[in-house]
Specification:
70% strand; four-stranded antiparallel sheet; mainly beta
Length: 80
């Protein structure tokens, strides 16, 4: 695995579940970028666009606010 596991869920559905190479999102204290090997982090995600690079393709998701937790090359975002 060259990337990390990412799962993005909302109350009614799973928006993304798979491996990705990078993740960029807006947080309450600025813009974050996550790649494999990033140090553990928990952040408040603000409503807006989340950019995912997976298998050479850029995926843009529009989400509500939520929370991200990244640890051991696995990220979970729970959004409204």
């Amino acid at each position: 695995m060259s990337g990390f596991i990412l799962k993005i869920i909302s109350p009614d559905k799973t928006l993304f579940d798979g491996e990705c190479d990078s993740l960029v999102f807006n947080a309450s204290d600025g813009k974050y970028g996550i790649m494999r090997g990033h140090s553990p982090v928990t952040a408040v995600v603000t409503a807006g666009k989340i950019k995912i690079l997976s298998e050479g393709k850029e995926i843009i998701l529009e989400t509500g606010s939520g929370i991200l937790h990244f640890e051991n090359n696995s990220a979970l975002i729970v959004t409204e």
